[in-house]
Every structure is written in structure tokens, then in C-alpha cells.
Amino acid sequence: SAAEKGGYASFMLKEIAEQPKAVADTLLGRIDTAGRLTLDEVRIPAAVLREADKVVVIACGTAFHAGLIAKYAIEHWTRIPCEVELASEFRYRDPILDRRTLVIAISQSGETMDTLMALRHAREQGAKVLAICNTNGSTIPRESDAVLYTHAGPEVAVASTKAFLTQLVACYLLALYLGQVRGTKWGDEIHAVVRELARIGDEVDRVLETMEPVRALARSLAHKDTVLFLGRHVGYPVALEGALKLKELAYMHAEGFAAGELKHGPIALIEDDLPVVVVVPSPRGRSVLHDKIVSNIQEIRARGARTIVIAEEGDESVAPYADHLIRVPATPTLLQPLVATVPLQVFACELATARGNEVDQPRNLAKSVTVE
Ligand code: AGP
What we know:
Layout: H1 11-17, H2 19-27, H3 46-51, E1 54-59, H4 61-78, E2 82-86, H5 87-90, E3 101-107, H6 113-124, E4 128-133, H7 139-142, E5 146-149, H8 162-181, H9 188-209, H10 212-220, E6 226-231, H11 235-250, E7 253-258, E8 275-279, H12 287-302, E9 306-312, E10 324-328, H13 336-354
Parallel strand pairs: 1-2, 1-3, 3-4, 4-5, 6-7, 6-8, 8-9, 9-10
Helix pairs in contact: 2-8, 2-9, 4-8, 4-11, 9-13, 10-13, 11-13
Domain SIS: 45-184, 217-362
Catalytic activity: D-fructose 6-phosphate + L-glutamine = D-glucosamine 6-phosphate + L-glutamate
Function: Catalyzes the first step in hexosamine metabolism, converting fructose-6P into glucosamine-6P using glutamine as a nitrogen source.
């Protein structure tokens, strides 16, 4: 009913708007005033976490994209090798797991059969399984050794939005916690990240306040057949997520690529007026990547692409090559997905609406996939 949607036209729009609170709720009580992580619910003994020699993330769909981003954070902050695998592929390739493997199963619903079967397989091999889940008491957390709940609140729209952002927050918290338990040098970078996480809800809010041009752009592209998405580093999974949203909601052909792969094939797809969304990393931090992606933008634009560039505030270098420029607040590199994903959600939702689609219940999809 209209009341359940809180005045929004769809649950999806309501859930997009709820993201600042969802993010803040997921952080609540998990970082103390000294900036240390207090994840008491991670009931896997510290000794086990210290001895883990591999992390394997298993998930499906949007949760898999959260896992891809988690890999960057886990490896960077803990130096433990981390693999990310689609849950539906995992057990069929006879993966190498033992008691020193920490498996992270990410699931909004906690009922996804592919993820459940993968986690059962991991536990049978002696691995410890930690669930990141949004649904209290659901099957995946019940069958795991521990659970870190995301506090997004109920997500009704089939396309995941606030659950995804809170999965990212949970992954960052867990990566920092693993670093803390294992005695990673708590350097300036990690302090800056912890401080930034405390502010991130407000920054998501600021992004939401500037979405009108993104909506107008989405409406203007409603007649298109294809949209491509490019990113590097953590921007690559953001590109995959932007493409998935557009497939799910707008029923358009959409693909995400690692920008560095362009020249190895996908650049052949570029043609006149093809919309290409590019997620640009911060010019601070990994500036080499930034410069490489700017030259990717120049390359595709020279071949006629209509460039839709998501870049941090103050990054002027991209402006000359952007047909449309979407600004997001500056964040530490690893946290950029928390702000860069939001315009892509709004873009997909508006484009789907302009095409006359029902955004909360896309055709052929179910909120929770309980068959393999
Ligand atoms: C997200 O927009 C989709 N509904 C889908 O990809 C989803 O993320 C996937 O099915 C996994 O669901 P889960 O998080 O409930 O396990």
C-alpha cells in the first residue's frame, strides 16, 4: 500500500532513500570511541582468526558484488589471501578448503539455496563460516559458525539497494576487525577509514540530494538498447552492480567491464552515442589508476561513446571528457563504492520507470531464490 511505501512511488525508491540510516545502523555500536572494532558477535575464537591462511567469500548476485569489493579491503588491511566465488559455482569445482580457511557467506535473505549449499560444503571440509546477513534467524546464519548482521531493515524491492550498502559496511568492519585481531599495524590510513565510516551516512545523504540530473539523464536514455559500465579496482565491482541493476529493472542489455580490459576486446563495442558509465577512482591515493581511466574515457569518447562519468568532487581532470558528470563526495579509495553505487541505483530505477516497468517486482525474478 501507499502507506507502507512511506509516500514513495515504490519500495525501491524508499529503500534507496533509507540508505544513510541503514549504513549508520550497521555501524552502530561496532566501533568504540578509541576507533577500535567491537564485533562481539563474531564468535569465532581470535586464535582461529589469527591462524586463518585464506578467506573465501561466497555469494550470489548483488551480494557477490559486495564480496568482490570485500576482497580489496580484506587483502589490503589484513594481507590474508582472499578469493571470491559465485556460490553456484563453488562446490562443483572441488574447492581447496580446510580448518584454516575462513569462509564468508554474504546474503541479504539468508535463504539463498546456492549460498546455503556452498556453506554446507565448506563446513564439511572443516572451514569456519561467518555469515553476513540481513535477516535475523534465517537459515544461512543458523548454519554458520558466526554471523555479522547488517541492519538495513526489511528490504522489500526485489532489486537490492540498502542491503548492498550495508553488506559493504559489514565487509569493511570485518576486514578491519580481522586486521585488529591479527595485529595489523593500526596506521594513519586505518584511522582515517574508521573516521570516514562514521561520516559515510551523511555523505550518502549528500549524494541523494543531488540526483535530479541523474534522473533526467536516465529518462533521456530510455530508448537505448545497451549501456556499458566501466571501472577499475573497487570501481570494477561497482560497474558490475550498475549493469546488474539495469538488467534487472530496465530489462536492457548492460555489461560491466574492468576498464583495463577495454583494449582486450570490449572497445570493439563502442559506437556512436553508446552510453558508457565510467566510475573514476580518486585522483588522490591510487593516482596511477585515475590517470589510466581518464585515458580510457578519452579513448571511448574519441570513438563516439556518450560518456557518463562518476567522479569525486574537485576532480577537474575528467570534466573535458565527460558528456555527463556525476559528482560524489571524496572518500578513501576503498570506501568509494558506498557513494558511487547510489547514482547507479537511481539511474536504473528511473530508467526502468521511464520504460514503464514495475520496479519493485521485475519480471522473472524473486526476492529470495530458494532453489539451486
Ligand atoms: C539483487 O538486486 C538481486 N535481487 C539478487 O542478485 C540477489 O542479490 C541474489 O539473489 C542474492 O540474494 P541474497 O543476498 O538474499 O542471498
